[in-house]
Amino acid sequence: MTFIKSTFRHPELPTNELGFTRQYYEGVLSTLCAGCGHDSISAAIVMAAFEANIEPHKVAKLSGIGCSSKTPAYFLVNSHGFNTVHGRMPSVATGANMANRDLQYIGISGDGDTASIGMGQFVHATRRNLNILYIVENNGCYGLTKGQDSATADRGSHSKKGAPSPYEGIDLCALALQLGATFVARSFSGDKHQLIPLIKAALKHKGFAFIDVISPCVTFNNNPGSTKGYEHVRDHLAATNTIDFVPERKELTTEYAEGSTQQVTLHDGSVMALHKVDKNYDVSNKSAVSMSLLDYSERGEILTGLLYHDEESQDLHQSLGTTDVPLNTLKESDLCPGGDALNKLNQGLR
Amino acid sequence: MNNVTAVNDLVIRFANVNGTGSASANDLFAKSLFRMGLPVSPKNIFPSNIQGLPTWYEVRVSDKGYLGRRLNVDMMISVNPQSMEKDIKDVRSGGYFVYDNTKPLAQSWFRDDVTFIGLPLTRLCLENYSDPRQQQLFKNIIYVGALSALLDIEFDVITDIIKEKFASKEKLIPPNILALELGRDFAKANYACPSTLRVERRDMIGDKILIDGNSAAALGAVYAGATVAAWYPITPSTSCVDAFGAYCKQYREDAEDGKKNYAIVQAEDELAAIGMVVGAMWNGARAFTATSGPGVSLMSEFLGLAYYAEVPVVLFNIQRTGPSTGMPTRTQQSDVIACAYASHGDTKHVLLFPSTPKECFDMAAESFDLAEQLQTPVIMLSDLDLGMNDWISEPFAWDDQREYKRGKVLNAEQLDELTERWGRYNDTDGDGIPWRTIPGTHPTKGSYFTRGASRDEYAVYTEDSAAYKRNVDRLALKWETAKTLVLEAEFRLAATNTRIGLMYFGTTENAALEAADRLAADDVVVDLCRIRSFPFTAAIEEFVGEHDLVFVAEQNRDAQMRTLLINELEVPPQQLAAVLNYDGMPITAGNICEQVHEYFATNEKSAAG
Ligand SMILES: Cc1ncc(C[n+]2csc(CCOP(=O)(O)OP(=O)(O)O)c2C)c(N)n1
Ligand code: SF4
Ligand SMILES: [Mg+2]
């Protein structure tokens, strides 16, 4: 069954700089459970892409398998999408990115998709600093296969039908940081004020932009005793910062009090103004960020916001030294050395 | 002693130690025979470690043009004490054993039916070279010099190769030539030269080239416009991607800024390697991966996705001996079924079977056209023997008028001109192949959601049974179209009528052609068919139909190609007789003849009984 949304548009709906309405950034109607955190993330992506004036057809959205991985159908209907195989979206995204460096890549994954079956690919896409916005819609369980614990389930947390998890939960942000991700953030599907600017900034980042979004599964893991349910998350959120995203060409007009704000410039000249909750938190200091992540998790708190950003990010194309134009636009004349070169080569093999 | 006497019909085997620089001396030896106009087929027989274990290099010379392996070592060049005892046993009766006699050989190892030729390789090196590295390396060149005298190889031919090779490092020329002379002069002074084995110049090479199949395949990928290569190291495919990198460096880098018109990603495993190819091809670049059997197993899930989601993929499988790690540095043709039906569900893949470096080049290039025209994976099945050994081959050729066949891809103008709703999986042309679009083509038209889940003609998710069935039936229709696009088999019909056929593919060709000559001499006349592609073409089906009995020669235990023929063409199994070789060594003509004769012996016996 597919739901096509009503195409009726109010004539006076606000448009962005490209002349598109927000609805233009939507996808087909979601088939996820009502209240699923994943739908809020899709809505945040729609809003972020609209506000950041993204051209949808210049975006490729890719995913693995899972409820979370279904969501690329629910935003940016004018973008090509690819629902690949379980845990393997990073490799498909890597190949796609190699073929066309000019598109923007949005990778959507789940905690099962990334932290279990796809851990290897996640690790390596991260360390290559692939230019992609990589979102994990983290509900601590395998929604699509009916609620089994995932590897991000915290020790002692239990799902609706399950026993307390006896294993250490994987902190994907700590991991991404260690592996060389150049933009690391955590957020909560229920906090669009934090999430939308984070997505906007991540879209402008050149390199691996990782956002771990806690996204409760209302059907299998939203019960008391679960550390990924709405109530628990709300009660244990601790934000490092909130962001004002200032696009390129716009001036930073607001004055911020000394010490409470850190300005971070993105690759295209856009600026993130971080309103710091903790004055001493420095998003460019990797080892300090690492320590903070540990500290908060030991206290049972969920640290959110922009956790780490590397202004010197060099993406995979830069590491490989590929040409500036997308490889998929090169023509036969650019690529084929031709008959004469071959005859010469033959001569050397005689 | 009765020595084997032969001109231009020799098997010379070198017993070396892996990692001691013998490879370039051995290449020099083979190349000099090639330059004398003689068909040579060199083969490396090597262990799966890097240094220290025995390696062998075997060169066959045949002025009948036979390039397959043959048994019976006429002359063994032994510079490896570790394998010496066994190497002595491996020489045929009447043959020669050439060895380093700086240290005496154990008395008990001598055989009276073999001629022992001692060369003081170590001593000569110590006396003439001071650098310890050279003292080691030049042992190899000295034996090449000795062979020039023993086998009557034209000395100038060898020195010319040295001069060309070191044209840019001229100071290496004199010590190399000195080594050649030391060997030659010692042999001449101490042994009858030439021996009863010798070579003579012929004019059988023409404009042919000497190259390995993996380099050729890599070059084919460069010519076909592959821009993305993703891979994970595995013998014997590694040298293919290495060669791709080297050719790209030569042909695809900007002279000024060094920027690359290609991207090579060493993936974390084969799952990722093929995933990257899927992503790149989906996004409109030409991409490929190269691997061997274990890698194909890992790629299996993605091959199913690519088949079903209709994403072109190019995969070179350089086969080795399985199952599992098997003998990783030995050859086999044992991934036929694994590749033909790779993945879960109803899947079938287009396969190509090259048998020469020229064909590796051509088929590599063809793979991209076929994959994009058919929007499906294409797997080229080479093997270790073809991929990692040098072969005499027709020269490469490229028609500059040739255009890449990119298949049914809609561009922005075409999308604008469409009058009807476009459907990614809509078969508008009746050939089972729909039109696709590349991401980023058009702001509002042509976007769709690619998935491995069931969907309708418009790429809209559905679990409707009828829609699912329509889709997989269309894929079956596409398979019929593939039969008309793949490469035709090569037929060689005997001069006289016969009801017996011999089929083979890939590197089995060389032994099969030689076997056919020998069988004809024994009054068994066979028509020949070399399979070059899967799905099987109509002409292959006819060939099988026109013969009462068809031998299928191949290099695996389970007669995989025969199984495929029985399964796909619905041939009665008794009509196809298996001729098999699966010990990890390339198949020989002798082996094929033996099995054919044995078949007749058993079947006549049972007919009589
Ligand atoms: C190779 C393979 N193994 C198993 C599955 C079954 N499977 C589908 S989704 C899924 C788990 C998804 O969990 P997660 O990524 O956390 O997504 P969620 O549904 O929770 O959003 C599994 C195990 C599959 N599709 N493919
Ligand atoms: S099962 Fe859980 S994750 Fe899946 S759609 Fe329902 S609420 Fe969301
Ligand atoms: Mg999950």
Q: How would you describe this protein?
A:
The complex is a heterodimer of chains A (350) and B (609). Chain A is of the alpha/beta class and 350 residues long. Chain A has 12 helices and 13 strands. Helices cover 30% and strands 19% of the residues of chain A. Chain A has an 8-stranded mixed β-sheet, sandwiched between helices. A 3-stranded antiparallel β-sheet of chain A has the order 10-12-11. A two-stranded antiparallel sheet of chain A has the order 5-6. In chain A, strand 5 and strand 6 (148-149) form a beta hairpin. The termini of chain A are far apart. Chain B has 609 residues and is α/β, with parallel strands linked by helices. Chain B has 4 domains: 6-198, Pyruvate-ferredoxin Oxidoreductase, domain 3 (3-Layer(aba) Sandwich), CATH 3.40.920.10; 211-393, Thiamin diphosphate (ThDP)-binding fold, Pyr/PP domains (Rossmann fold), CATH 3.40.50.970; 412-485, no CATH class; 490-608, Rossmann fold, CATH 3.40.50.920. In chain B, helix 10 (293-309) links the parallel strand 12 and strand 13. The longest helix of chain B is centred in the C-terminal third of the chain and has 21 residues, at 465-485. Chain B is globular, with a radius of gyration of 27 Å. Classes of the chains: A alpha/beta (350), B alpha/beta (609). Chains A and B meet through strand 2, helix 3, helix 5, helix 10 and helix 11 of A and strand 9, helix 7, strand 11, helix 9 and helix 10 of B. Strand 2 of chain A pairs parallel with strand 17 (449-451) of chain B, so a sheet runs across the interface. The structure holds thiamine diphosphate, iron/sulfur cluster and magnesium ion. Magnesium ion binds at residues 66, 110-112, 139, 141-143, 150 of chain A.
